[in-house]
Specification:
The complex is a heterotrimer of chains A (about 350), B (about 725) and C (about 210).
Chain A (H helix, E strand, L loop, with lengths): L16 H11 L1 H11 L2 H23 L4 H5 L3 H12 L6 H16 L12 H12 L1 H4 L2 E2 L14 H10 L9 E2 L2 H7 L5 H7 L1 H4 L8 H17 L6 H16 L12 H5 L4 H8 L10 H21 L6 H18 L20
Antiparallel strand pairs in A: 1-2
Chain B lengths: L34 E2 L5 E5 L9 E2 L6 E2 L4 E4 L8 E2 L4 E10 L7 E9 L19 H10 L12 H4 L14 E6 L8 H8 L1 H14 L5 E7 L3 H11 L4 E6 L8 H9 L14 E5 H12 L6 E7 L7 E6 L4 H7 L11 E2 L6 E2 L13 E3 L20 H5 L6 H9 L3 H6 L10 H5 L6 H71 L2 H57 L2 H39 L9 H11 L4 H21 L4 H29 L4 H28 L1
Parallel strand pairs in B: 1-14, 9-10, 9-12, 10-11, 13-17
Antiparallel strand pairs in B: 2-8, 3-5, 4-7, 5-6, 7-8, 13-14, 15-16, 15-17
Chain C lengths: L1 H6 L1 H26 L7 H8 L13 H9 L11 H12 L18 E5 L9 H5 L5 E2 L7 E2 L19 E5 L35
Antiparallel strand pairs in C: 1-4, 2-3
Classes of the chains: A mainly alpha (about 350), B alpha/beta (about 725), C mainly alpha (about 210).
């Protein structure tokens, strides 16, 4: 009788790529809850539109490429991209913003490069940057957190949110738009830190960073810790990114003078810092491969984020920093080959062999 | 409960990078004590159960042998003998399916047991300290012991790390590997519990052979508390350390174990002995001890028989050569339940194509898992570069980079990424969430690289031989040319001298001078004739060859043109026709030249035949001796091997039915006779010098054809 | 002179560019001589890539002459024993597009073969010995001949001259030593665009 012939190992861990993706989706829930709590339905609507678009685009391209559609949809990678993009986009953004962003993320940044595993850039960030450059007005119109809403009013209802998103009828939400803490800080550069924090309610009412944003970031941090616990990724990239950002913020805090870049806590707990640290730069496909490489990759992103935030044109710089380092990831890999057992030093990837 | 009273073992161990913790699945087979199964009817002994040269059979079919009798002798240094594991009759020496995943066959000795298990008398050695280490090594080698852990490296070689060179690779640490890190396997666990004293004695024996290294340590993973206890008890009062370290796959890999116990790394491309370390499996140590103490050759081993497709899961003391089928059915094997059959562990073992293979020296485990236990591998998904594989790699490689390069067949980059430091432990494949068969990629790439290297060596060798041959032919040609020139010159010189002498003689006309001249003239014409003849002897052959070449080239050109003419289109025919005519004329000319020449030569030889015998084409003799030159010792060996193989092949042919065989033979003979006739005709037409060869060939074939026909007819009649 | 240049800026530009061209040309030329990379002559490199069967199927009497031919611009796809992998290797060495094998010179054999003489039929004519390009046949006149399998390159050249047709080309048996795992069949997801159409589909794929 004959048995199947397969190569060893014959045992296999139960976790699949699909499982990892589902963990990531699960881990975004605290952040999503916090965002919805402070900013209303907007983010959820974003995510729904993005998810539908992503799945449709993915299915369409897979079909055109003649690949098995269901097999690939089941790995949930498109869904992860959609959810991350939905979380990053401003709430109540017009539906077409979300649609264009997601479609370019899936089609341009992912499938045209060959699909999952082959994309050199983080698809969600590519989508985000395309939108940021093409539609700066829509992309910088954030909602104000619930805490700061004037007395007697509440977050927009689901109906008015949907109206704003789909019909462009923004009358229901106009009163709820406002600058993010990082926007504010950037636009008021030149004042003392103390002045900025005391004059703006978004800072003065917060415990340590910006109203709402601090909780959003803490929630993403929690989700990230869950993923770390599940060993979905290693600690190297997020920790080094946060550490680098913190060090930069400390170095340039300048005692809160008018040249100050803002406090460490402001940088760590506002904007997309935690979302970026645990959900974006940990995307393994577009990051460096070795642990050492990931530390360099993360730290470089941290530094770039600070540089762009303070001296650049964009108050929240995660997307640009990530994309820039995506470029550099192969370069980092080239110089961070680990030392193999039995070798005295690590070797360069393209060293020509002695014949 | 007896606690070992020795001091608590606080030996420092080191951590290895990477590693995984797969489900151990070791409980199933440890529920029952060591079992024994009935002696099978037929046992199969592959001649190559070890790494190195296959052993050479020293028995014949029909011989009766006893258990422990040597049936195949080691060949060369890197080889071990094979012993019969029970008594019986040698029923065949033939190719059988080997325990290998591809189902490849190889030479095996087949023994039909008599069920009595009579053993030969063993020579015991009460105190091995009285013997020289070299004598002990010889005993171990003679007992057929090769690493029982799985690799099957001849133990005697490892025990002689200096390789006979004084002071080289002095051993400071002897490690016994009781790690058994693979899931499912418990053979060593069982062995350490049941034969603890033998294992420790084996450690001491090996230490004695290796010149008493400072450290003798048995390394055991902490998931085998009973074995640890047993060994610690046995090791009391001896210099053998027992080192316990946390369970992690693949800490049982030789290099990994060295790192765990000593913190040192074996440099890439070197052996542990260069660090002064020797690692032996605990089973090997025991077998070595028994071989020395009791004179017992390696005829049995402990093998784990496990998996949900079996009724009884346990460790078995099994005779080497026992077919897997026998062992499985003795343990209640349900073939319909089994998803596959694995020899070795689930991480590094290989899938068996069928159950007809024997248990060999390296078989530590047979797993017959059920579908749910080891389902078929899911289809591979895309690599997402998650890096889990790099985390798991004990050799600190970058498995995913290797995977990309292996997929793209970038072999040089693979080597730059140290592919050959991969120990194929399977940790990367195990953790891969996309279920990519990484190890298979690496194995394939390694195979291709090795193959290419071999091909390179082979092609370089072929190039050398080709160039040598070219050189040789050129040299022969040159020598021929030189000789020809020399003869020509000699002839001319003689002619000139003769002419001068003649002129001088005519001029002087003196009597005494004429006497001299007569003498000279008597000598000179002879010399001239000899020179001329020598030159001729050289000349005609070359001339003839040249003419023949001309004929054959003209002929082939003519034939080619003819066939092209037939195939050609209408408009090209005209052109071709002219060419064809030209070729025909040229052919005729060439033939005419040749026949003229031949006639002339015949005449000449008739004349010359009266003269003393001419040297018989020396260049031909030369070429023959040259031909034999490459027949140095090595090629003679290879030739012997070729003859041997040819014999084996023709024996294999015998399996065909007699009539079919004759028919095919007849058909091929007919075709060949036809071809030979054509060739002969052609040769005759060309006046080739090989006519006689062709004729002999044809005659021989025709006789053979007739005989075959007759044979077939007789066969048909008898049917 | 200067006036001319000033009045006609085109001349100034020409002089400037010409001057620069001269200077850089000089530097490059100097560098080319000074830092010349001593490599194997191209013929050696090509020769080392050829399979060295010396079979002559390319139309040359051996591999080296063909290597010389390639160095002189001959097509690189005339070597059936080397097959596509050799063509690819030479193409990458010469930095040209790899053509497919020219079938005119023969087809790539799937299995490696060696010559095998049916020894009881051999009449000892030495014709195969003379034909063998690598001296892999052993024997003398009127004596049985034998192929040294380890030396045989499988070139077929001895088959034709044999008057009694007693030479077979037999495939080499695979042994445990030279067997190795095949590269896994490209799973359903492991290819990239252009070449990724695969027979696999789950009913939805086109």
């Amino acid at each position: 009788m004959a048995f199947i012939r397969v190569t060893s190992p014959h045992a296999h861990i139960a976790t699949t790529t699909g499982d990892v993706m589902r963990w990531v989706i699960l881990a975004t829930i605290p952040g999503l809850v916090a965002l919805s709590h402070f900013f209303g339905w907007g983010t959820i609507i974003n995510i729904v539109i993005a998810s539908v678009t992503a799945l449709a685009c993915e299915a369409l391209v897979l079909f055109l490429r003649g690949r098995p559609v269901l097999f690939y949809l089941k790995d949930c990678s498109a869904l992860v991209t959609a959810i991350l993009l939905g979380l990053a986009l401003p709430p109540y953004a017009p539906w077409w913003i979300v649609f264009i962003g997601t479609a370019s993320a899936i089609i341009l940044a992912k499938q045209l490069y060959g699909g999952l595993g082959y994309n050199p850039f983080n698809p969600a960030m590519v989508g985000y940057v395309i939108l940021l450059i093409s539609f700066p007005v829509e992309m910088t119109r954030w909602a104000i957190p619930e805490t700061l809403i004037a007395d007697g009013e509440s977050l927009p209802s689901l109906i008015s949110a949907l109206q704003a998103v789909f019909i462009g009828n923004t009358t229901g939400i106009d009163g709820f738009t406002g600058a993010t803490p990082l926007d504010l800080f950037k636009s008021q550069q030149g004042l003392l830190v103390e002045q900025i924090t005391s004059e703006n309610s978004i800072f003065s009412l917060a415990s340590f960073s910006g109203v709402g944003w601090e909780w959003v970031n803490i929630s993403f941090l929690l989700g990230g810790l869950f993923l770390l616990y599940k060993r979905a990724f290693t600690w190297h990239a997020p920790v080094s990114m946060l550490a680098a950002l913190a060090i930069m913020a400390t170095l340039f805090y300048d005692g809160g003078s008018s040249d100050s870049g803002g406090s460490v806590l402001l940088h760590l707990f506002s904007g997309g810092t935690m979302l970026g640290a645990f959900f974006i730069i940990t995307d393994p496909v577009s990051s460096a491969t070795s642990n050492k490489g990931r530390m360099i990759y993360g730290a470089s992103i941290g530094i770039l984020i600070y540089i762009i935030r303070i001296w650049g044109n964009y108050p929240d710089a995660i997307a640009f920093a990530v994309l820039l380092m995506n470029f550099a990831a192969p370069f980092i890999d080239y110089y961070t080959l680990p030392r193999t057992y039995g070798h005295t030093k690590s070797e360069r990837a393209t060293r020509s062999r002695d014949q | 409960m007896t606690q070992p009273t020795s001091k608590p073992m606080l030996i420092k161990t080191y951590n290895i990078p990477g590693g995984i913790h797969p489900p151990e699945n070791k409980v199933q087979s440890m529920q029952l004590p060591l079992g024994e199964i009935a002696i099978p009817n037929e046992l199969v002994f592959p001649l190559n159960q070890h790494i190195g040269t296959p052993a050479d059979p020293i028995v014949n079919v029909g011989d009766t042998v006893l258990a422990g009798e040597k049936i195949a002798e080691a060949v060369g240094g890197l080889s071990v003998p094979v012993h019969a594991s029970t008594s019986g009759t040698i029923s065949a020496i033939e190719d059988r399916v080997l325990p290998h995943t591809a189902g490849i066959t190889g030479p095996c000795i087949v023994l039909t047991s008599d069920g009595q298990h009579k053993t030969i008398a063993y020579t015991e050695v009460k105190d091995y300290h009285s013997l020289q280490p070299s004598q002990l090594i010889e005993k171990i080698r003679d007992a057929g012991i090769a690493g029982l852990g799985g690799a099957g490296f001849p133990t005697a070689i490892k025990l002689n790390p200096s390789g006979g060179i004084e002071g080289q690779n002095t051993i400071n640490t002897l490690i016994l590997n009781g790690t058994e890190c693979e899931p499912y396997i418990t053979a060593d666990d069982r062995l350490m519990q049941d034969y603890a004293d033998d294992v420790v004695a084996g450690a001491e024996l090996l230490a004695f052979i290796l010149g008493s290294p400072q450290r003798v340590v048995i390394g055991i993973e902490d998931n085998k508390p009973n074995a640890i206890k047993a060994i610690q008890t046995a090791a009391q009062g001896s210099s053998v350390e027992v080192s316990v370290f946390p369970t992690k796959y693949p800490s049982g890999g030789e290099k990994q174990l060295i790192q765990i116990l000593t913190g040192q790394e074996v440099a890439s491309g070197t052996i542990p002995a260069s660090l002064g370390i020797v690692v032996q499996n605990v089973g090997t140590a025991m077998a070595a001890y028994r071989a020395v103490r009791y004179g017992e050759p390696l005829t049995w081993r402990i093998t784990t028989c496990v998996g949900e497709a079996l009724h009884t899961q346990r460790n078995i003391k099994v005779l080497l050569g026992t077919p897997v089928q026998h062992m499985l059915s003795e343990n209640g094997f349900n073939a319909t339940q089994a998803s596959r059959l694995i020899m070795g562990g689930p991480m590094m073992g290989f899938a068996l194509p069928n159950t007809d293979v024997p248990i060999v020296k390296t078989t530590n485990c047979i797993i017959a898992p059920s579908q749910s236990e080891m389902p078929e591998p899911p289809p591979a998904q895309a690599c997402i570069r998650c890096g889990l594989c790099a985390e798991a790699c004990p050799a600190s490689l970058l498995p995913q980079q290797l995977y990309w390069y292996a997929k793209a067949e970038e072999y040089e980059r693979l080597q730059n990424h140290n592919l050959f430091d991969c120990i194929e432990c399977g940790a990367c494949s195990y953790v891969c969430p996309s279920a990519i068969p990484l190890v298979q990629y690496y194995r394939a790439a390694k195979g291709v690289i090795r193959y290419q290297e071999q091909e390179k060596i082979k092609s370089d060798h072929a190039r050398q031989r080709f160039e040598f041959r070219k050189l040789r032919i050129e040299r022969a040609e040159q020598e021929k040319e030189e000789k020809r020139q020399a003869r020509k010159q000699a002839a001319e010189k003689a002619k000139r001298l003769a002419a001068e002498k003649k002129a001088a003689a005519a001029a002087s006309g003196e009597a005494d001078a004429s006497k001299n001249t007569a003498q000279d003239a008597g000598a000179d014409p002879v010399a001239a004739a000899i020179a001329k003849m020598q030159a001729k002897a050289q000349d005609p052959a070359a001339e003839k060859a040249k003419l023949e070449r001309a004929v054959s080239s003209a002929q082939s050109r003519f034939e080619k043109l003819e066939s092209r003419f037939i195939d050609a289109e209408e408009d090209q025919r005209e052109k071709l026709e002219a060419q064809l005519k030209q070729a025909e004329v040229r052919l005729k000319d060439a033939k005419k030249n040749l026949s003229h020449f031949l006639e002339a030569q015949i005449l000449e030889t008739q004349i010359e035949s009266t003269k003393p015998e001419k040297p018989k084409s020396p260049e031909k003799a030369d070429s023959e001796t040259n031909k034999l030159k490459p027949a140095d010792e090595k090629s003679l060996d290879a030739a012997a091997a070729a003859i041997e193989r040819a014999k084996a092949k023709s024996e294999a042919m015998a399996s065909m039915s007699q009539e079919d065989k004759l028919k095919t033979q007849l058909a091929s003979l007919e075709a060949r006779v036809q071809k030979a006739r054509e060739k002969l005709q052609k040769a005759e037409a060309e006046g080739s010098e090989h006519i006689s060869a062709f004729r002999t060939g044809l005659e021989k074939m025709e006789t053979k054809l007739a005989t075959t026909q007759k044979e077939l007819e007789t066969l048909k009649e008898s049917n | 002179m200067f006036d001319l240049i000033f009045n006609h800026p085109i001349i100034a530009a020409l002089i400037g560019l010409g001057g620069l061209a001269l200077v850089f040309g000089g530097i490059l030329g100097f560098a080319a001589v000074k830092f010349k990379v001593e490599g194997d002559p191209i013929v050696e490199q090509i020769d080392s890539l050829l399979p060295q069967t010396q079979c002559g199927q390319c139309g040359h009497p051996g591999c080296r002459p063909y290597a010389e031919g390639i160095a002189n611009g001959e097509a690189i796809n005339k070597c059936p024993p080397g097959g596509q992998s050799t063509i690819n290797a030479i193409a990458s060495l010469l930095d040209v597009e790899a053509p497919s094998l020219d079938e005119e010179h023969g087809e790539e054999k799937e299995l490696k073969t060696v010559a095998y003489i049916r020894e009881d039929e051999c009449i000892g004519c030495t014709k195969c010995i003379q034909a063998c390009p690598v001296d892999a046949i052993l024997g003398a006149a009127k004596q049985m001949h034998t192929v040294i399998i380890d030396e045989c390159t499988g070139c077929d050249l001895c088959v034709e001259p044999c008057p009694v047709d007693c030479i077979d080309m037999i495939p080499i048996d695979q042994t445990v030593k030279d067997w190795y795992w095949e590269k896994p069949e490209t799973g359903i997801s492991t290819n990239i665009i252009a070449t990724d159409r695969e027979p696999y589909n789950d009913g939805q794929a086109a």
